[in-house]
Fold each of these.
Amino acid sequence: MTAGPRGYDRTKRAIDLVVASTALVLLAPVLVVVAAAVRWRLGGPVLFRQMRPGRHGVPFELLKFRTMREGPCIPAHDAERLTPLGRGLRAMSLDDLPNLWNVLRGDMSLVGPRPLLVQYLDRYTPEQARRHEVRPGVTGLAQVRGRNALTWEEKFAYGVAYVDGRCLRLDVKILLATVGFIARRHGISASGSATAPEFVGSSHGRGSGDRGLWSHGREMLGIVRAVNAVSPTWRVLGFVDDKPSAVSRERVSRLVVSLLGPLEWLGSLPPTTRVVLGVGNPRTRRSLADRVAEYGLAAASLVHPAATVGPDLVAGEGLLVFAGARVTTNVVLARAPQSERDRRSRLHAGGLRVGQPACRCLR
């Protein structure tokens, strides 16, 4: 099941509202005590706020109780920043209680894949990215199967398994299992880590033999899919490559797209077709852009839903803004429209502030 019936979604949302609002009222004394303890031991602010990707990868502000020391002179490693109070709160999952407010706001659900970091979005395989087809949860299948004791691949597999098999019975089982799992205090941290190691991407499916089609091209496909998840806009025809014989068709099949053939194949497409240049090398990219233009086609401009773009951005042809990027001032990126190029002699990125991962402004 890739998308739950509307009846299930409505029922689950109603349950989320009732349970979250009731829990916030009943647990108000606990919230006050924990907030006071955090204030006393760690100072302000009491709450930890961080942007996390929600349903369809759209970011929201996650709320938790602080468990780590902060400041310019504080060590960077989690093990050195995590306080005894923080360890206790994490062991009992009390630091996640403010997540209930996220549930009330509709950012999260009681049950679903846990929200991870925004910078992980372009590191997922297409299968792993399916975890964003549903709202993230306060608890989830991975949390009751091992939590941080699991590998990243195991966590993602459980996330996708929940997306495919979600139903009210499964939700109830996960909620009940969560209580027992918290009582046993299992999987609070990964082996050799105070919390969990950084996810740097899955090693399978990567290799130099597949060149841009598997690396940069995969990221481009991820942006297209994220855009379509929010508002269906694009129909993906497939990949073309300047040397298709050098590309593994088996790995193309993992992307659930077709390898259409060499670049000459573009000559058979109507002029309304848009091309996404999945090539990171600027020189190669410019060369391919010129060849694409010879066929009378234009490059698509794509902005990931998890990117923050200011209202004054001049989005030129072929603009690609990745998840986590922040473009907050008046800038011109990619190939600007002709009138804009006449006014500004060169492209610039003045005032561009980029988060993690780095925004790739490909021209």
Amino acid sequence: MSLLTVSSLCGFDLKTGGIFLGIFELFTTLVWLLKDIRDPISIDYAIDVLSLLTTISWLYGIQQQNTKAMLFNIIWSATNCIFFVVVLIFASLGVIFLKDIHAALIRRADFLSSPYGDNIDQDKLYEIMDLTIATIWMIALLIFVIQWYFLAVKYSLYKLTKKNNFKPITDKCPI
């Protein structure tokens, strides 16, 4: 997977970048965990706890050069990237279908009136909806590229740590 490897994180070496990512994830996870602590039985809380555990595992793996501990966070990050794309696609499809349903309702009612009695221009409304969708897609694409880059940094550090920890056995078997 040479596409997923990078040599640094914004000019910092991989280990420093990995520690930075771990601390950043730890901070953001703790913020989300404190936000969701009001309902400790919710799925959000469980995801936050799992994220916290994988982040601690990541930092431990870097410190101890334990690639197995690092791998949990890499799998979690990859799953988050995939989930992000799936949610974005389904949300976009939902907005598109909502737009179609809205158009059908307007055709049936022949007009859309505002609370002030003025008719709202249907084409202008659709133009605003299209601009909103495009803006959300651009922001989501930027977030996805950043997530993917962070995943590439983690995977590169994992591969480097695994390569450096590999010590071939050169001793002959005494038996």
Amino acid sequence: MPKCCSCIALKSGIRKIFNKKNLFYEDANRKDFSSFLWCECPRTYVMYRCLMFIFSLGWLISHLERNYRTGTLAEFMLYLTHWFEIIFNVYLLLSVATAMVEIRKNSVLTEIQLEKESASKEVVESTEEVDHLEKDDADSLQGRKSLRWYHKCTWYSYESSLVGSLLITIVYWSYLWTGTSVKENPFDIYQHGLNCVILFIDLSITRLPIKLAHAVQHSLFVFMFMMFSLAVSYIRYAKGYEKLAIYWILDWMNYTKCAVLITLGIFPAMFLLQVVIVGANQVKLNLHRKFTNNSTAVLMRQDI
């Protein structure tokens, strides 16, 4: 029997989304890491990144200092919220460094390109080697060269921070909030709400793409935390601790079925959250296309 057209289209779409370039953070433009979507202002972009990093780092240091005063510093790395808080700061630091590297490289390559254009007016004939070098430099200027490790780390931490902020905000206010007032613990508002707002503002003005295929890495990361919580529970049980679970919904001893269901459900949940941020990114790109005249290239390149 001939295959159904819809099945063929679905298979083709899945292959396109989960191809090698998407899975391994290769389908992006270097220019995405050093300029805004709405305007190309490299210096302003770096200043914006620096201010964001200083603001976020201030909150992290204040949080660590508070834990030190209350004698809970040793427990800081037990919570998923704090894992994503650190990833957020790593993202901002990497984004500053990556933007500065790209701006410096673009400045040097632009000078080289201008020199070669000037020289080409005087020299009529050119060798194949020179032609190859010129093409390579032009590709570098237009961002078509392959991404380096720091681009990929920045890209991963960016998306991970977005998905993580959504996850912890929803889970915290739905299941974990105990009625603590903002005055008692202002870090609750920052970690479980304000950081989410900041990241979506960041999403609305930056050029970094978002891929549905990256839900695989984010799901594995959260699954790794689930296994970490299981190990912590058994270690605490072996040492005779009264409190075994990091979170009550991940109480592997008393609510094993609940913990198993949550762990298995994290994979579809992370894909759903990735769909949300992919959708938000597409809305941003559509608005950019509507209000500007030079967004065609950006929109064609940023597939899901």
Amino acid sequence: MLKFVRGCVGLVALCFVLPGTLVGCSEQSRNFEAVKRMAEQGDAKAQTELGSMYAQAQGVALNDAEAVKWFQKAAEQGDAEAQFFLGVRYSGGYGIAQNDAEAVKWIRLAAEQGNAKAQTELGEMYLRGKNGITEDNTEAEKWTRLAAEQGNMYAQVSLGQTYRDPEAVKWYRLAAEQGYGHAQALLGLVYEGGHEAGFSVARDYAEAAKWYQKAIEQGDDRVKHDLERVLAKMAVDTEDQ
């Protein structure tokens, strides 16, 4: 499911001026220093942002240990975003020793505060029996639905995959309309299959081609053969008319 990026891009790669912009190393560094001053004064949001800067090498060299340090400070003040980030780092052992109990603890705290990313991850933990949690489909659906209803596209697809139509199509569409390539590919399959494949929507090759194309534009090259297949079906239908 969702993989959380550690931010492996080096500082050198980030410190360049994009054509038509004036954003470079000096501006990133100034922003880093400003955030650091606020974080050192105890501002939880700044501490979370500072942790993210260290985690993603934004204005400073990548430093997982420093990222954990600042996420921990903010998490202990109750910042849900920091609690989620800290839980993810305990889960993967990034900048700190891997610890399932701590991972679950912090991700649950964030989820209980309504953080959609944490709710999605907690739902996945229950679904897969990850991080020492016993599989529990009821809890998995509970947390995944809470995230999906907040608009988290990963949770929407996960929830869609647990249902039959028309509920599944509803969640795929919501995620696809947010630009999630995997959801777009799934929606393409739905329209390609239609009622004949047991879906709640009528077969529509043009609509299927539209969603396959959108998924390809998001970088999902695996869908290219699906698009070719449905375009071939459209060509046959045209010849038969």
